[in-house]
Amino acid sequence: MPARASSLPDPSAPDESPADPVAIVWADPDGRPMRLVWAGARWRVTDRPTVITEPVSWWRRLDVDAQALAVAPRTCTGWRFQATADDGRSCVLDVRDEGDPARWFVVKVYE
Fold first, then answer.
1. DSSP state letters, the chain
2. Does the residue 31 lie in any domain?
3. CA 82, CA 90: separation in Å to the nearest integer?
4. The pTM is what?
5. Which of 14, 36, 41, 56 is deepest in the core (most CB within 10 A)?
6. Structural domain tally of the chain?
7. What is the largest CA-CA distance in the chain?
């Protein structure tokens, strides 16, 4: 069965944003997430996190027609990883950094 984006704890909710978007994240020395507290539970990162990147903001001023978007310099804006809660639940999370190195926002959940 393919993974689907949903909200925890109510996957039938029409809004795809998580019910509790703030996560407290602990990372390794290279900045990769290792564990987090989110949605009232402790979670462990149980796979290798994948960095989420996007073109740096100033590039669009140079490439207004988006013809060279594929070669634009990129910046890390978040991570995608599988997490497992202490009670055994697992899901894939997309998290974004909003400026505080410990507080991240869960922007998408795949169950």
1. ----EE-SS-TT-S--S-SS-EEEEEE-TTS-EEEEEETTEEEEE-S--EEEEEE-TTHHHH-TT-TTGGGS-EEEEEEEEEEEETTS-EEEEEEEE-S-SSEEEEEEEE-
2. yes
3. 7
4. 0.71
5. 36
6. 1
7. 49
Identify whether the C-beta of residue 79 lies closer than 8 Å to the C-beta of residue 43.
no
pLDDT in 10s for each residue of the chain, 111 residues: 333 344 344 433 444 556 789 999 999 998 899 999 999 999 999 999 999 887 777 766 666 676 766 677 777 789 999 999 999 999 999 999 877 777 899 999 998
In a domain, 103, yes or no: yes
In a domain, 33, yes or no: yes
Any domain includes 12: no
